[in-house]
Amino acid sequence: MHDFTAACRTALDETSWIEYVPGWLPGDAALLAALLTGAGWEQRERWMVNRMVTEPRLTAEYSDLAAAPDDRLRAADAALSAHYGVPYDGLWINYYRDHRDSTGWHGDWPTCKRAECVVPVLTSAPPDASSSSPATAAAAAC
Asked: Rounded to the nearest 5°, which phi and psi values hold at 138?
């Protein structure tokens, strides 16, 4: 179901990389449709630089994967954990409703407490050719 044979890895530096795997999440449109109605979406606020701002995206967070609203999320977690050798135990979902509610590329405050952090990012849409993100560049190189 979750096939990594088409994976293409692009190094960003000595310790960072992007792995593009087209078709890895079969049925992504159906999963997205289920999440749109079943996830606990909320719009959050956060400190950015020196002020509180409202995040443009919607977010659903499950600190315990058993509470995630769809079995396909747990199956994806198991496949990612097995492939990368990292036991994932939580899930954070962002919903970008249109091109006006995305965020620019940024560095988050370091929150990983492990010796090595591997953060899978799944998308239900093909890379946006107009984007200049590292992910778009990695996908184009594959």
From this structure: -65, -45
Q: Tell me the angle at which helices 28-38 and 71-84 cross, rounded to the nearest 10 degrees.
A: 120
Specify the pTM.
0.77
Task: Give 90-117 pLDDT, tens digit per residue.
Answer: 888 888 887 777 666 555 555 566 677 7
CA gap 85, 88 in Å, rounded: 9
Backbone angles phi, psi at 35, to 5 degrees: -70, -35
Q: Which amino acid is at 108?
A: D
Taking only the tens place, the pLDDT of each residue in 18-42 is 888 888 888 888 998 999 998 999 9
